[in-house]
Amino acid sequence: MKSRNWFESFRHAVNGIRSTARRERNFRIHIFFAVLAIAMCIIFRVEAIHFIMVGVAIFFVMAMELVNTAIEALVDMYCRGKPHPMAKLAKDAAAGAVLLASIQAVIVGIVVVISIIRRYVG
């Protein structure tokens, strides 16, 4: 069913984020670390470019987690609990995308922490 206007599309998107946050433990964990990272950026007054890097990393991980959840839901609905090698591949690949995004976010975090340490030590 296609949305009739922009507001309705926006509402569906927000509902998707909300329902994922309610149902998916990993998404809630990502939210916790996102809030923590933003708070640390504010507390340590990181440079604007580093704040942007953190923000992009956060949104990338969250977006990948939403895509992963969507793929898992579709595969589960289609397979109805019956194992299939292609279903496993789809779910594993989607989880791998989240893992790569998370690794990238950790690397960004390390870069930001190093810059903070250099500011206070050097």
The CATH level-2 architecture is identified as: Orthogonal Bundle
Mean pLDDT across all amino acids: 94
CATH topology: Helix Hairpins
Low-pLDDT windows of residues:
none
What is the string of helix and strand elements? Answer: HHHH
Number of H/I helices: 4
Topology, number of strands: 0
Structural class: mainly alpha
Q: Which CATH class?
A: Mainly Alpha
- State the domain count: 1
Share of residues in strands? under 5%
Sheet bearing the most strands, described?
A: none
N- to C-terminal distance = 58 Å
Apparent shape: globular
Helix content: over 70%
**Radius of gyration from the CA trace?**
18 Å
Structure characterization notes:
The chain is mostly helical. Helices cover 87% and strands 0% of the residues. The chain has four helices and no strands. The longest helix has 37 residues. It is globular, with a radius of gyration of 18 Å. The termini are far apart.
Characteristic terms for this protein:
single chain; 122 residues; mainly alpha; Helix Hairpins; 87% helix
Task: Break the fold down into its secondary structure elements and pairings.
Layout: H1 6-23, H2 25-43, H3 48-79, H4 85-121
Short description:
This protein has 4 helices and no strands. The chain has 122 residues and is mostly helical.
